[in-house]
Amino acid sequence: MYRFLKPLPSRLIGLCLVACLVILTGCTPFPVTASSVTHLTLWHGVNPPPNRDVLQRLVERFNQTHPRIQVESLYVGQGDQQMPKILAAIVGNAAPDLLWQAPMITGQLVELEALYPLETWLDASPLKEQLDASLLESMQLEGHTWSIPFGTNNVGLFYRPSLFKAAGITTLPKTWAELRQVAKRLTIPAQNQHGILLPLGKGEWTVFTWLPFMWSGGGELLAESDDLANGAVPNSRRSGGKSLQQSDASVQVANAGAIAALSFWQDLITDGSVVLSSPERGFELDSFLAGKVAMQLTGPWTLAQLDATKVDYGVIPMPTQVRQATSTGGENLFVFKSTPQRQQAAIAFAEYVLSEAFQTEWALGTGYLPVNLRSRQNPAYLQYVAQQPVVNVFLDQAQYGRSRPIFPGYNRISDSLGRAIETVLLGKASPEAALAEAQQRLDLILQR
After folding, report:
1. β-strands 153-154, 293-298: how paired?
2. Which three-class secondary structure state does DSSP give residue 175?
3. Is the domain 154-329+403-447 a CATH 3.40.50.300 member?
4. How far apart (Å, rounded) are the C-alpha atoms in residues 367 and 355?
5. d(C-alpha 62, C-alpha 265), whole Å
6. pTM here?
7. Spans of all domains in the chain
8. What is the mean pLDDT of each run of 10 residues along the chain (448 residues)?
């Protein structure tokens, strides 16, 4: 039968060879060369150090699965230390591609036109439906989405059960009055032991851990004009992502709740129940771990560090005065304006951060609460919560969490409040006088 076959024309043979070459080329990935890789920088202030190790592992995993995008993770200090660097980098046209920071800086960065808006991408992404909707407030300003949540948390009162037991305390404090009594009983000067550590300084950490007391005392940072006229307590979320200048809200730092909160901290100091942290170091746990203080304000991001030390600890929901309240914390991920190629690469990393896999591992490794709702139902995370029941304190009180205002003027409010708190803690002024001065300073600044 072979003798009936005619040889194929040379032209047809050539076409077949070309077709085969095209098919084979399509099945073989193009080599990744240095020039085809997009290198991104991620600035962050992740703390404590073990949490940085978790972040580095996750970044390396992204780099392994995205050979054409390589992210370099750089620790650039805590929040207050970061801001001068961030602002200088923006002015010098040397900003990072990605930034891990508290969402309260959104207004400043928007004013500087430094951020790449994310709503077009996020609105079209299935990840939006998996996101905890209560966190949208921290992402938005003036109708745009400027960041995504990296992880969320809130403030609780950590305590040392062994010290409570030694002092004969069997009931955990639920109110301010009970907290004051317990702090007195836990203060033993002969052993250099104090009931509670309070953060000294005028930075954001001090304000962040003090605000739950102001809100619990019935105070509000922003009072809307109609509510002020009617004497009602305003809703801090009513501004709907507007800037201070565009909303009907006015700044009221010298409110009754703020005075009550600062007076309570002053009472704890007068009782001798307080040891103050080193300046701007209120997040450090050294005294708590050493048993020199029985209680300290912090959050779930410290769980991994505490577990590694093997010390005994527990968590008390924030004690209340008028109402339950805590500060919602956590950092967001910002994408800076650059080139379309770098921005799209940064969005690929943002998708990775919001994913169930990332959020589950980040939560398991650091103690942060997952922002992806699927992560909270992930079997590994449910097992973690069962083994780490203190996490339920933060999950349960999240419904009472309050977000710090997102608008360009927040840094001015925080600075004025921080100065007032520090002044009172150092015994240089009364709560009323310190807050009145803060209000006067803010009135002049915001009028200008």
Report:
1. unpaired
2. strand
3. no
4. 17
5. 45
6. 0.77
7. 38-152+330-377, 154-329+403-447
8. 41 45 44 77 92 96 98 87 89 95 91 96 96 88 94 96 98 98 97 97 94 97 54 38 48 96 98 97 96 96 88 98 94 97 98 98 92 96 95 91 85 94 97 97 84
